Amino acid sequence: MVVDDQDLVRDGIAMILDGQPDIEVVAQAVDGADAVHKAGAILDLSVVLMDVRMPVMDGIEATRRLAGGPRVLILTTFDLDEYVYDALRAGASGFLLKRSSRDELINAVRVIAGGDALLAPPVTRRLIDRFADTRLDPAVAASLEVLTAREREVLVLVAKGNSNAEVAEELHLTEHTVKTHVSRMLAKLGLRDRVQAVILAYDAGLVTAGR
């Protein structure tokens, strides 16, 4: 589903995605409320491309209401949308810049549909520096006790915006081993993806903005 209050943007994205053999646009919505309503009637909805700033209901509230359902990919101009971090907290699986290329759009949908998070390392760092809530939550910090020392190291590096390859280089591990550590870490903490891991690391005080 493509959700955007601008007809040309929404129709353009839908046309690009519908032209792919493995992607089908099953619905379009003009605002968050429309998206929530339509999503409830679509059984096999996998991904929602969600704009942030829309009338009636914005993308953040709509994402929150869709939690537990289809995976949400936030569409943002980034420099102007100051609520992207809130959208990630609300359950979004990542975000895509509106100035992204056609190929990046298609790849983003495939990545999200495949169960991964879409958070490019350079953009992650910018996002964290600007929007991270650094207040320590003792309960969240205590939940990290289930992790091994290595898994905590991996979590910290992921939270700082490093890719698996960068984590592997930093810890002198293979990329496959890092991927295994990330998967085990997410499973132990009951997290869906790397986005939630980044948020948890900040809430737990493992890392703070600017450090």
TrEMBL record:
Record-level Gene Ontology MF annotations: DNA binding
Short name of one Pfam family: Response_reg
Statement: the UniProt record of this protein carries the keyword Phosphoprotein: yes
Domain (Response regulatory) ranges: 1-113
List of residues that carry 4-aspartylphosphate: 51
Any single biological process term in GO: phosphorelay signal transduction system
Domain HTH luxR-type: 140-205
Alphabetized SMART domains for the sequence: HTH_LUXR (SM00421), REC (SM00448)
CDD domains: LuxR_C_like (cd06170), REC_NarL-like (cd17535)
Keywords, ordered alphabetically: DNA-binding, Phosphoprotein, Transcription, Transcription regulation
Name by which UniProt lists this protein: Response regulator transcription factor
The species this protein was found in: Kribbella antibiotica
Origin organism lineage: Bacteria, Bacillati, Actinomycetota, Actinomycetes, Propionibacteriales
